Amino acid sequence: MYGIFEQRVLWANGCQKRGAFKAVFPVIQSTGPNGNFEGMEAVRAARIEWRLGQILNAAVKLMSEQGFQKMLITDLAREAGVSVGTIYQYVHTKEDILLLVVNDIIESYRREVPAAMEGIEDPVERLAAGFRAYCLVVDSHRTAALLAYQETKSISREGRERLMRLEVETNSYFADCIEDGMKAGKFVPVEPAVASATLTMMAHMWALKHWYLHSLFDVQSYIQNQLSFITRALVASEYQQGYADLD
Q1: Buried b (16+ CB within 10 A) or exposed e, 30-61
Q2: How many structural domains comprise the chain?
Q3: Angle (CA) 59 62 65, round 5°
């Protein structure tokens, strides 16, 4: 049987959620002809996901206070309100916990950003919607996002490479949109990969510099301020007026 860490890796590699759960959690066979296999599977998966959330939230709190290297599994178990044995039902090593914390943020980007951009034909409006969604994910994971920058050095090379591949994938949502905008003549010529990386850094800055920025903005006004900057930098001059509401 796969552990929850392998389940998240399956998701990170693009497996559909249902397919991943079926690979990870073998269905308990029912003796009745009408056994509700899917319902049993869903309940078990939801319980595991809820318990994992407890552990990851506790891990983020402890790592932000102590650092990854000083965090002990015994302290984590106490903070999460579970036994040490329970934690090792979900992970194999302490590094797995850090990987899961970072992967949880990336999965949120992969879920929320495309959903926000879906169905919006205009590339400028689509990019704005995606950037807004990205910033809101950062806002809801501020401490974890900061930890991702501080503690990535503690992850193995294989783990870092996997996370970097996932980050490039999330950047592609912006890069593809920027390419569409250039083809339509609405964006000035730029290198999409560089521009998309710049946008993600602008979003991450809300976590990295929150100690200062929160005295100037709430998250919505920060997003609006950055969208104004993005519009002026990327949108061709003849289209600027049409997007004054983003300014």
Answers
A1: eeeeeeeeeeebeeebeebeebbeebbbbbbe
A2: 2
A3: 145
Residue length, the chain?
247
User: What's the predicted TM-score (pTM) here?
Assistant: 0.77
Cβ neighbours, 10 Å, residue 109: 23
Output the six-digit token pair for 53.
């959330």
Q: DSSP string of 136-154?
A: HHHHHTHHHHHHHHHHGGG
Cβ atoms of residues 113 and 130 within 8 Å: yes
Q: Are 119 and 219 in the same domain?
A: yes
What is d(CA 80, CA 139) in angstroms, rounded to the nearest whole number? 23
Whether residue 240 sits in one domain with residue 193: yes
| Three-class secondary structure of residue 27 per DSSP | coil
Which of 46, 70, 92 finishes a domain? 92
Radius of gyration of the chain (CA): 21
CA torsion sign for 50, 143, 134, 218 is positive
Q: Mind listing the pLDDT tens digit of every residue in the chain (247 residues)?
A: 334 444 444 433 433 333 333 333 333 334 444 456 566 666 666 777 778 888 998 998 988 888 888 889 999 999 989 899 888 888 888 888 988 888 888 889 999 999 999 999 999 999 999 999 999 999 999 999 988 888 888 888 888 888 888 888 899 999 999 999 999 999 999 999 999 999 999 999 999 999 999 999 999 999 999 999 999 999 999 999 888 887 6
- Tokens representing residue 186 in the block: 């609405």
The CATH number of the domain holding residue 228 is: 1.10.357.10
